[in-house]
Amino acid sequence: MSVAFIDLKTQYQTLKASIDQRIHTVLDHGQYIMGPEVKELEGQLQTYTGAQHCITVSSGTDALLIALMALGVEAGDEVITTPFTFIATAEVIVRLGAAPVFVDVEPDTCNIDASKIEAAITKKTKAIMPVSLYGQVADMDAINEIANRHNLAVIEDAAQSFGADYKGKKSCNLSTIGCTSFFPSKPLGCYGDGGAIFTSDDTLAKVMREIRLHGAERRYYHTRVGIGGRMDTLQCAVVLAKMERFAWEVEQRIAIGQRYGERLAKGEGVTLTAVRPDRNSVWAQYTIQVNEREALAARLKERGVPTAVHYPVPLHQQPVFKTGIRVVGSLTNAETVAKRVMSLPMHPYMDNETMDRIVDAVLAG
Questions:
Q1: Which terminus of the chain faces fewer neighbouring Cβ atoms within 10 Å, N or C?
Q2: In sequence order, what are the beta bridge partners of 222?
Q3: Cis link prior to 311 (omega < 30° from 0)?
């Protein structure tokens, strides 16, 4: 039998009573848009991260878009970010008429290399958008220091890192704004699209809440251009149920990631994703680097072990970005890891027997 890449079925069976009860409560009261579960979830997430404000939204992508809109990013502006991420990171910048400015990543963490950022800053730079890739936060202290020197905002794209720690603080509460995703495969996922924005800036929070509701300060009174960016009450209900077990799931992800690393380190030809000692990873994807990736993936498939590649083509090489971007320095690391990364099955319900089967298949080559 094939191994589950992400085992949402087991998670649902474990939380079935709570999830079903939460969903049926929404069905009973019928407030499908901005129902009471929305504010309840925002309160729990705010407490969890330590941020002063949480605004739930319709997706992780819309979280990034709303954050940029709230900062006033517009045509002619630039936002510095990483080329090694999902397209949504740069897509939202371009949608506002601004230009993504790409700098290289660290070869061992695959996160943006903070030492490359300052050289990319110009008079057009409006913000820095690091991505907390694979579940590990980027070097936010260094990034924030650079931003402060140049009076720039920092948006943490934390779509993959909700629950992760960085120097004793939570992802999403490390910069001007933090944005996360509740896509089903994320560490904390709903059963559709959803996301959240975090900030401790009262003014930005007010603006982002208005943008989420078509720019409305109150009903039918619109102070700015916005979007329809609300998170459905039903999806909030699902995440509320999952929050009951989330701390345990984060512990399991960290432990499973450590065991993966201990076992895979014994093999040849496998490069592990480094985790810095002052932070952890919630392993949204457990990603290694290998040579001859396609051949190994085919052999693993024969053994019933699924794999994925996050991400095979860096953004500066995507056809859609042939123009409208700026590249600063060499992006050799991003181009190299894109050819070598491979994600293995990862979820908090993985038992040791399943992991042994996966690792044995990888090490057998």
A1: N
A2: 216
A3: yes
Residue 256 lies in a domain: yes
Question: Is 173 within a domain?
Answer: yes
Q: Could you tell me if 184 and 253 lie in one domain?
A: no
Sequence-ordered list of residues with C-beta below 8 angstroms from that of 68, at least 6 positions apart, any chain = 79, 92, 93, 96, 98, 127, 155
Q: What is the pLDDT along the chain (365 residues), one digit of tens a residue?
A: 799 999 999 999 999 999 999 999 999 999 999 999 999 999 999 999 999 999 999 999 999 999 999 999 999 999 999 999 999 999 999 999 999 999 999 999 999 999 999 999 999 999 999 999 999 999 999 999 999 999 999 999 999 999 999 999 999 999 999 999 999 999 999 999 999 999 999 999 999 999 999 999 999 999 999 999 999 999 999 999 999 999 999 999 999 999 999 999 988 899 999 999 999 999 999 999 999 999 999 999 999 999 999 999 999 999 999 999 999 999 999 999 999 999 999 999 999 999 999 999 999 97
> What's the start-to-end Cα distance of the chain, in Å?
20
> Where is the domain boundary, 239, 256, 282?
239
| CATH, residue 338 | 3.90.1150.10
Beta strands in the chain (DSSP E): 53-57, 78-81, 99-102, 125-129, 153-157, 165-166, 169-170, 177-181, 195-199, 216-218, 221-222, 270-272, 286-290, 326-327, 341-344
172 and 23 in a common domain? yes
CATH, residue 69: 3.40.640.10
What is the count of structural domains for the chain?
2
Residue in the structure block whose two tokens are 């019928």:
30
pTM for this prediction: 0.97
What distance in Å separates the CA atoms of residue 285 and residue 269, rounded to the nearest whole number? 19
